[in-house]
Write a structure and sequence with these properties.
5 helices; 11-stranded mixed sheet; alpha+beta; Rieske Iron-sulfur Protein; two-stranded antiparallel sheet; 24% strand; 281 residues; single chain
């Protein structure tokens, strides 16, 4: 599935595109992207670049296009499967190869897209969805979403039934998750720590059972990347979104999906729902 796409330049940035690239290193990423104590974007550091340009990137600039790039956390170079690929564009084949080394066929990686933290998760849905549900046979599940007050919001099936969400339709066994925890805006990760929630196992139902959860090390919120739901954001001004389910911890709800296409073998994210990713600003 491929779609030609290029971000438009931001008109108020024309005088700055030659002065500073929006490709940021790990130190700047931590400084710009999140402040876990305050849970907010550090706006003062951005200067003339502006929040919008960091969020959306600049065309033809290094790291500022629609490419999703690997983000190797400092100290994890020797422990994650993509440890030698920091800031390299993500390829679909890399995930297919990595999944072959998994007990469940699932794999994932931390990433960055135009300055925003994401996780890209591979689930062998096509291979398993027409088989009997069983442990360690993961597939995407479409669940009902309820807000933090227990009110029904909608169904994950709306990803196919509602034309508004058509760009999010799951394909190629992949999803991209915008990875800012709705609790205090920390960045959950894929198997960066070892515990019962992150081990390479899977159980159906979108519950805390089984592993392969996105896990926030700050306050232990857990998210099931195979459980797709419609919900209402419990942080900031409420809005409805399609995303993955929170299954435990203090986060009020899950995290939204990011639509993408495959441009050849390259994974490219799309800005169709970029307003969903500003709840920590």
């Amino acid at each position: 599935m491929s779609r030609d796409f290029r971000l438009r330049p931001l008109s108020d940035l024309d005088n700055h595109t030659e002065e500073k690239s929006n490709l940021i290193d790990r130190r700047d990423f931590l400084r710009y992207s999140f402040n876990t104590a305050a849970g907010g974007i550090t706006m003062a550091c951005l200067g003339s670049i502006g929040f919008a340009s960091l969020l959306m990137g600049q065309p033809e600039a290094s790291g500022g296009d629609s490419a999703v790039r690997f983000w190797v956390p400092t100290g994890a170079e020797d422990t994650v499967w993509y440890g030698d690929s920091h800031l390299q564009p993500m390829s679909y084949d890399a995930f297919v190869q990595a999944s072959a080394n998994s007990n469940t066929g699932m794999t994932g990686a931390q990433g960055v897209w135009s300055g925003m933290p994401v996780n890209v998760i591979y689930v062998p849905d096509a291979e398993n969805k027409n088989t009997a549900t069983a442990a360690n046979k993961p597939r995407f599940q479409y669940t009902d979403g309820y807000n933090s007050g227990g009110k029904y919001v909608g169904s994950g099936y709306e990803i196919y039934e509602n034309q508004e969400y058509a760009a999010l339709s799951i394909h190629d066994n992949l999803i991209i998750v915008f990875s800012r925890c709705p609790h205090l805006c920390c960045i959950p990760g894929w198997q960066l720590v070892t515990n019962d929630y992150t081990n390479d196992s899977w159980e159906a139902g979108g519950t805390e059972s089984g592993g392969n959860k996105l896990f926030c090390i700050c306050h232990s919120s857990r998210f099931d990347p195979t459980a797709i739901e419609k919900n209402s954001m419990g942080r900031g001004t409420p809005f409805q979104y399609i995303g993955i389910k929170r299954v435990g911890g203090p986060a009020p709800n899950g995290m939204p999906l990011v639509p993408f296409v495959l441009n050849g073998d390259m994974i490219e994210a799309l800005p169709d729902f970029v307003d969903w990713y500003a709840y920590c600003s």
